[in-house]
Amino acid sequence: MNYDMRSMRAEEFINDEEIRETLRYASDHKDDLKLIDKILEKAKMRKGLNHREASVLLACDNEIRVKDIYDLAEQIKKDFYGNRIVLFAPLYLSNYCINGCLYCPYHLKNKNIPRRKLTQEEVAREVTALQDMGHKRLAIESGEDPVNNPLEYILDCIKTIYSIKHKNGAIRRINVNIAATTVDDYRRLRDAAIGTYILFQETYNKTEYERLHPTGPKHDYAWHTEAMDRAMEGGIDDVGIGVLFGLDNYDYEFAALLMHAEHLEAVHGVGPHTISVPRVKKADDIDPGDFDNSLSDEMFCKIAACIRIAVPYTGMIISTRETPKVREKIIRLGVSQISGGSRTSVGGYCEEERPHDTEQFDVSDNRTLDEVVNWLMRAGYIPSFCTACYREGRTGDRFMELCKSGQIQNCCHPNALMTLKEYLIDYAAPDTAKIGNALIEKEIGSIPNEQVRKTVCQRLEKIAAGERDFRF
Ligand code: SF4
Ligand code: SF4
């Protein structure tokens, strides 16, 4: 099979030979400082890099150049995303699953784990609990099981979630992370007004993929890898890709991830909306030590920096799988969205204590959402609960156009301030509110456009008086 980024066949756009050739090229040129400087110069234009160029940067271990890579990633992050971090929470709907994924406790053969699926009443209770924390944006998660969790069930859950308006709360954007499906099903998800459709590839290495997914529909590499094309054909503009780092060699996954982004851009005119960077974690029946490709915190951060440089316009997501220390470093290097106060079990938000028996993975950051918000502000970031874009029809290429021209900043920054204000009034602890109000005061002054600044001030007053949900 030949490499063809425009092909609709998985093995052609994620071509094993091309990846191996890329890794050889990267290894041969990792000390070629002239080439590395040329690549860094190109990256400074903020137009991104292709998978070969980015792979050379990832392979480079020259101390000075590695520092240049980190500095540039940090600068690009500042230029495109400012100091804002968007917050979200996962909501686990069901852990019934017919797949045999070796790295996930929900795999069919795991008899230790209690199986649970939320009823619509339970969904409503979970959403109420999430709204009481202050969340506005959810990522719903479910195992694959056409009998227990058919698409109709997912659609019912979406309807329930959007319908719950508890006190001043509302879930304004639902991202959906469910198994690969048909164009028709994607169309139905689009019609249900979802935000991003998220599907992790887990590993792009076909042989490893098939070994790690021995049974169930997910075993089909092509069906899974071509899912984003079907999603886009079904009218979903924003898709989120990712790999589970630690399953196969990180450099292989890194090159393939970027090839996937290049393929989506070449075929659909718009690359992935987000890239997630999860790592294999401990869970019931799962020991990360069984996967011998685990990577150091340092390499993990370098991957994030190289992704930031290679695809400046793509949001990057990190979950509570990571410790606060790693989250702090990686946020600086390019992450734009993080989860906060997460419970990775079915029904977890309604329990007093974080339940462990149905968790998909061990959470390393156990702080509450308010603690995360407080920590972000102390570290110099603006926590944002913004969900404006898809609600304003800014999706797919319309979003990318604004993003590439830098105009999106005019929306993100004021929206962050207004949604933070809502959070401070409705949910924050006194100390968080104090820090947050001072931060908003300071940030208003940095809104460049006078008219926008005036409008934001007026809207902040209206929020203080009880109105909600303003957006640019
Ligand atoms: S990773 Fe997803 S598909 Fe695989 S066993 Fe877990 S829930 Fe099922
Ligand atoms: S304005 Fe759009 S891109 Fe910016 S934070 Fe809000 S939803 Fe995200």
* Secondary-structure class: alpha/beta
Measured between the Cα atoms of the first and last residue, the distance is 47 Å
CATH class of the domain at 79-366: Alpha Beta
Number of alpha- plus pi-helical segments: 20
CATH architecture of the domain at 79-366: Alpha-Beta Barrel
Hetero compounds? iron/sulfur cluster
Fold and architecture overview:
This protein is globular. Strands 1, 2, 3, 4, 5, 6, 7, 8 and 9 form a nine-stranded parallel sheet that branches. It has a domain at 79-366: Aldolase class I (TIM Barrel, Alpha-Beta Barrel). With 472 residues, the chain is an alpha/beta fold. Helix 13 links the parallel strand 6 (274-276) and strand 7. The model has no long low-confidence stretch (mean pLDDT 95). The protein has helices spanning 10-13, 16-29, 33-44, 51-59, 63-81, 120-133, 151-163, 183-191, 206-212, 221-225, 227-233, 250-268, 297-310, 324-333, 369-378, 388-391, 396-404, 409-426, 430-444, 450-464; strands at 84-94, 137-142, 173-177, 197-198, 239-242, 274-276, 315-318, 337-339, 382-384. It has 20 helices and nine strands. Helix 13 (297-310) runs parallel beside helix 14, helix 18 (409-426) runs antiparallel to helix 19 (430-444) and helix 18 (409-426) packs parallel to helix 20. The protein is 48% helix and 9% strand. The chain binds iron/sulfur cluster (2 copies). Residues 97, 99, 101, 104, 106-107, 143-144, 179, 218 line the site of one iron/sulfur cluster.
